[in-house]
Amino acid sequence: PPLDEILNLHDFEAIARQTMPEKAWAYYSSAADDEITTRENHAAYHRVWFRPRILVDVTKVDWSTKILGYKSSMPVYITATALGKLGHPDGELNLTRAAAKHGVIQMIPTLASCSFDELVDAARPGQVQFLQLYVNKDRSITKRLVQHAEKRGIRGLFITVDAPQLGRREKDMRMKFEAEDPSEVSKAGSRGVDRSQGAARAISSFIDPGLNWKDLEWFRSITKMPLILKGVQRWEDALKAYDLGLAGVVLSNHGGRQLDFARSGVEVLVEVTEYLKRHRGLTFPNEKFQLFVDGGVRRATDVIKAIALGATAVGIGRPFLYAFSSYGSEGVERALQILHDEFEMNMRLLGARSVADLAPDLVDASNIHSH
Ligand code: FNR
């Protein structure tokens, strides 16, 4: 169907399922074990309801914000998803281009199909990009990548901490991964791997399961970029990250692709804000220690709920992959435009004029129980 007949982010998934190469669909859509967490990620937002304010002058509403101090046209960023060329020959470049047009931030994955430099070179002057990092067993490779990224102007380093081993994604494992074509995976970690067990397993053997809290000191010594842990799932770890002086955490379960029965990000968010207030007196959103959430976000209402509950911004993954697989960068632009339209309407209906207005009193989260 033509793009203007696509009305929401779910539509992109339905179309991609019918039209994408089977291998790409298997890799993008798959999740761990019985895929319970993936389903829960979106469903968890259904437990949060709104308490709109009436009779607010909402002639003008503004949902732009700042993420790690950088402007974003909405409290949403494009999160890191590997292997963009499985879905479209231009791979992650589709995301870079659409992000530029809409003034949103792209997180470049370590395992992008396009090379890191290609994605940085494609950015417009002033366009902000972050880097998602998988830490290599060979730290000299990681150090080189991190310092190169800093030199190239990357504004935030998101270290993935929920993947000491890749989860079992059986849909993907049933596909044999034959990326002899180097265009599908950039050189990172693709040497000497087992290609018989799906795309994810094939590309991930370089990731260091030995990564631990002590390594964070080392990261501090090699870069001045803000450090954020991606994949935090309990308040105790968020508190440790805060105490170590990190810039923030992403409350995420990797789109349900790692530990099945991990809780949804929005559920963990409620717990984290409560306990960090109790133990450190922190209130959120907080400029010094920012909370991000990803997983299952498909509507501006989902985003608004997370922001009202204290997140600075929210990451979206699969919908953009599905959008570019069928429509290239124009699909991603359309997805972002849909979100803009949804923000405008829902901010008005909530009686919220700006992101600063999105406070906890606008939601009823009593169906989400803290730990
Ligand atoms: C991911 N994700 C991910 N995360 C990460 O830290 N490094 C990576 O290489 C990848 N790769 C990746 C590939 C694909 C196909 C998917 C779907 C996801 C996880 C991603 O950053 C994010 O946590 C989830 O995708 C968010 O959930 P939704 O928006 O996809 O539901």
From TrEMBL:
Q: Name one GO biological process term.
A: lactate metabolic process
TM spans (from-to): none
MF-aspect GO terms? heme binding; L-lactate dehydrogenase (cytochrome) activity; metal ion binding
Instruction: Spell out the GO cellular component terms annotated for this protein, sorted alphabetically and separated by semicolons.
Output: mitochondrial intermembrane space
Q: Where in the cell is it found?
A: Mitochondrion intermembrane space
Report keywords, A-Z. Answer: Flavoprotein, FMN, Heme, Iron, Metal-binding, Mitochondrion, Oxidoreductase
Enzyme class, UniProt record, top EC level: oxidoreductase
Protein EC: 1.1.2.3
- Please give the superkingdom of this protein's source: Eukaryota
So what does this thing catalyse?
(S)-lactate + 2 Fe(III)-[cytochrome c] = 2 Fe(II)-[cytochrome c] + pyruvate + 2 H(+)
UniProt domain FMN hydroxy acid dehydrogenase: residue ranges: 1-368
Q: Which family does it belong to?
A: In the N-terminal section; belongs to the cytochrome b5 family.
Q: How does it assemble?
A: Homotetramer.
State the protein's name. L-lactate dehydrogenase (cytochrome)
Q: Which organism is it from?
A: Laccaria bicolor (strain S238N-H82 / ATCC MYA-4686)
First and last residue shown, out of the full length, are 107 to 477 of 506
